[in-house]
Specification:
heterodimer, A: 530 residues, alpha+beta, five-stranded antiparallel beta sheet, 19% strand, disordered N terminus, B: 328 residues, mainly alpha, 13 helices, 75% helix, globular
């Protein structure tokens, strides 16, 4: 079995190490027990050597180097800025107008209209004959057909109809002007009886075959069976436009082009909706829109995100933010942890007791929920994203130090009792030098290992928070908030290039930190490894 | 031993007291909360009182008008009687909502705990016995990769593969669309089906740490003198490992696993939220985001209790399992 060979393995490797370290003996120069015969390596050099021999750890180091280059140099090399938005031209077909051929009676009223009950009664009565009467709601109405598809409805007063029921409609030729009821009535009577002129309030108007009403040369209004309505309230459709439109509808065209007064030509698409018996006039306009979720291309190797920003560049800047946050948080943690743990371990007594109880309390405070609560609060207060990032770092650092404090204290407690510390005391070295020159350097190996590992976990914590939308916020990118887009199932399903690269970066970086941390632990502690 | 347990218990109670005070002070210092939201919407209704008046009234109703210290003691007094107030977000007593949601979390936690032990410990032992072989490297890297996986990324990948592409599971939730029409057995299976991915996520995420822990401890034991003695006596290798080494490795393992037992009730905040499983984690996430002080307060204190309990159990187990440990 493999482990039976273990002692030999170990011995072999030690011999190998010695062999490497022995300088080819220059016979006769040094005596056998002369120190100079062996090239001594400093402890640091030994650690580096052991570390470099660990292939897995070196792989981790390579990944880390790549990630650092990617994040910090990549951002500089990338041709785009972090928050540069890209646009694309998009042809969007918007409904411009709708045309309905009037197949139902429309009611034009003077003052109060005809109640809907009365309208229904009228429709029934109208089928009986050209003239008649009907009753609704206690009122007796009479009606008379005045032209083809034109009825006048009277209530009491036989001179003035209260309402007109008509298949044709009258529109004013002047923008925004309402025609008086009586004029509309006169136009309709003339139009439906195929007359060429009529008089209204002493003025004579002429009427042409297409239904245009002229006052001399001036166009006043027109009557038509087609109702053309603009889809947007601020658009006025000219008479010429409507005429051409109606004629192309009658010709069953699919497309329609129109030249306006300024000579500009517009093209429209016509489509008929049978269920509504409406022609829809669509104008296709090219609009500049955010280039969202575009697939990977030469210009954007990883496509663009939902804001139309280059994904690869976002990924680089996101890495920068994630790494920055990781380093700063770990720095804060270590600073507080080493100072408090150091004091606690070196002083002992009540100070030690006090600090350790504080550590116990911090250990018990559930940090993730607290950060979530504070994140939600910052959301509600609309804290500036940049300030928010600072708070996040302080918070993570402030909640993370107890582990390091415990580690440092434990180390110092055991080191304090060792002979070399007694020796420093006996030689009369002053306290500050004893701590910083003799105690702290002995703690550093464990500290570095813990720091490397906690860099990984801090990055995960930050990413998780950003993923939940409670950490780093737009416009800043972080690997976590890039993946945040998967909350939209459509992105999860269709746009792998949005979230998989960010997740892989995250995984690779954290894994690399852990591999390096693991390798360092083995390198610092040769007892555990060859 | 009794004296030791008693001492530890007293310290734990003292710490719990301080922790809950810290949490209470923190919650009270929050500049915004659910109350403000309610007050704001109410004050915007036509003919309503002003925002300040609503705020005053609501604060008085929920006991938020006292200072932090008297407020804390009145909260503590009620909490000791098991009354944690009414949840603002769920509009039911906090404890009722807790009882509704904790069991699903516990079931999820327990199943993944068992799976984790079944998978991680044997792998850890294999890695240790075959130290520096390819198997060991493979297991170590897998363990570290599991350990480094961000939960949300892994969950998203699982969803993409198993929910979207293969269509085996639903994207989230505890019950399917036609749950109401299923037979009791079908309902059970439906729930089980919805729990598969969350449990897989939990197991994979937590397996790495246990695997590493087992490996390290096993290696330590394998380097001990009594193992060399056992080998020197000429015992067969598997006897050395499974009889002598493994039993000694169990000491730190039992201590650690015992300590993590209370954590089974804690729920998995992130995983439950990702899969919308209405366990204690997801419920409290929603409460916390909504600024529901009574529920968040309860959850935070509950978590602190679980941590303390876990430490207590592992300390006691440490002393109880290993006869070499003497307690002063």
């Amino acid at each position: 079995m493999a482990n039976e060979n273990l002692p030999q393995d170990e011995r072999g490797s030690i011999e190998e190490e010695l062999r490497v370290d022995v300088v080819e003996p220059d016979e006769g120069e040094y005596s056998l027990n002369d120190d100079r015969r062996v090239r001594t390596l400093s402890p640091t050099a030994l650690v580096v050597k052991r570390f470099l021999r660990n292939r897995v750890a070196v792989t981790g180091l390579v990944i880390l180097t790549f990630m650092f280059l990617f994040s910090f140099v990549g951002g500089l090399v990338s041709p785009y800025a972090q928050d540069q938005v890209f646009y694309r031209e998009d042809n969007q077909s918007k409904q411009y107008a709708a045309v309905t051929e009037n197949k139902e009676l429309r009611y034009i009223s003077d003052g109060e209209g005809l109640p809907s009950m009365a309208r229904a009664k009228f429709v029934l009565a109208q089928k009986q004959g050209k003239e008649g009467s009907f009753e609704s709601d206690g009122v007796t109405y009479t009606f008379k057909q005045e032209g083809e598809g034109l009825f006048a409805i009277y209530a009491g007063d036989p001179a003035n109809p209260i309402s007109l029921a008509t298949y044709d409609t009258v529109s004013s030729s002047t923008e925004g002007e309402e025609l008086p009821f009586a004029l509309q009535h006169a136009i309709l009577v003339a139009a439906t009886n195929d007359k060429n002129s009529f008089t209204y309030e002493g003025k004579t108007y002429s009427l042409d075959a297409s239904g245009t009403v002229l006052d001399g040369d001036q166009e006043v209004a027109y009557a038509s069976r087609y109702v053309v309505q603009p889809s947007m309230p601020d658009v006025f459709l000219s008479r010429a436009f409507k005429d051409e439109l109606v004629s192309s509808i009658e010709a069953n065209d699919n497309e329609f082009t129109f030249k306006d007064d300024k000579g500009e030509e517009y093209s429209y698409k016509l489509s008929y909706d049978a269920s509504k018996s409406t022609w829809s006039v669509d104008q296709s306009a090219s609009t500049r829109v955010f280039d969202t979720y575009s697939s990977p291309s030469k210009a954007h190797p990883l496509g663009t995100d939902k804001n139309g920003m280059d994904m690869l560049t976002r990924l680089m800047y996101g890495g920068r933010v994630s790494l920055y946050i990781g380093f700063i948080v770990v720095f804060i943690e270590t600073l507080i942890g080493v100072v408090l743990g150091g004091i606690s371990g070196y002083r002992g007594g009540w100070i030690d007791n006090l600090i350790m109880r504080v550590v116990d309390i911090f250990y018990c405070i559930p940090s993730m929920p607290i950060i979530i609560i504070l994140g939600a609060t910052m959301d509600a207060m609309r804290v500036d994203p940049q300030v928010r990032m600072v708070y996040l770092m302080l918070l993570l650092g402030f909640l993370g130090w107890p582990g390091i404090a415990r580690l440092v204290r434990g180390q110092i407690l055991s080191l304090r009792e060792q002979e070399f510390m007694t020796a420093t005391e006996a030689t009369g070295i002053r306290a500050s030098r004893r701590i910083f020159r003799h105690l702290i350097p002995n703690v550093i190996p464990q500290l570095i290992v813990t720091m490397t590992m906690s860099l990984g976990s801090t990055i995960i914590t930050e990413a998780t928070l950003s993923f939940l939308g409670l950490g780093v916020k737009f416009p800043f990118a972080s690997w976590g908030n890039i993946i945040n887009d998967v909350n939209d199932t459509y992105v999860l399903t269709n746009y792998w290039f949005i979230w998989i690269p960010a997740g892989c970066c995250l995984l690779a970086t954290v894994l690399a930190f852990n591999l390096v941390g693991d390798g360092l632990r083995d390198a610092f502690d040769p007892k555990m490894k060859r | 031993m009794k004296k030791y347990i008693l001492k530890r218990l007293l310290i734990s109670v003292a710490i719990l007291f301080l922790v809950s005070f810290v949490i209470y002070a923190l919650m009270r210092c929050l500049p915004t909360s659910y109350l403000e939201q309610v007050a704001r919407t109410k004050s915007q209704q036509p003919g309503s009182k002003s925002f300040e008046e609503w705020m005053q009234q609501l604060s008085a109703t929920y006991g938020m008008d006292k200072g932090i210290i008297p407020g804390f003691f009145s909260w503590l007094g009620r909490a000791l009687h098991g009354d944690f107030g009414d949840s603002w977000r769920w509009t039911v007593p906090v404890t009722q909502k807790f009882q509704e949601s904790v069991w699903i979390s516990f079931i999820m936690g327990a199943i993944s705990f068992v799976l984790e032990i079944i998978i991680a410990i044997p792998l850890g032992i294999i890695a240790a016995t075959k130290q520096y072989t390819k198997v060991d490297y493979l297991i170590t890297i897998v363990a570290l990769a599991c350990f480094s996986l961000p939960t949300f990324f892994f969950a998203s990948l699982l969803k993409l593969v198993f929910c979207v592409n293969l269509g085996w599971f639903d994207l989230g939730g505890l019950v399917g669309r036609n749950y109401e029409y299923l037979s009791p057995m079908g309902q059970f299976l439906d729930k089980a089906n919805h729990l598969v991915l969350p449990i897989v996520t939990l197991v994979v995420i937590s397996i790495g740490a246990l695997m590493r822990y087992t490996r390290t401890n096993m290696l330590e034991v394998l380097n001990a003198d009594y193992i060399r003695t056992a080998r020197a006596k000429g015992l067969p290798e598997h006897e050395v490992i499974y009889r002598h080494a493994f039993r000694n490795t169990l000491i730190p393992l039992v201590t650690m696993l015992g300590g993590s037992l209370p954590g089974l009730f804690a729920g998995a905040l992130i995983t439950e939220t990702l899969y919308s499983i209405p366990g204690i984690g997801y419920v409290s996430y929603q409460s916390m985001v909504a600024g529901d002080i009574p529920f968040s307060m309860f959850y935070l204190v509950f978590m602190a209790i679980l941590t303390l309990l876990g430490n207590l159990i592992s300390d006691i187990l440490y002393a109880a399992v290993d006869p070499r440990v003497r307690i002063a």
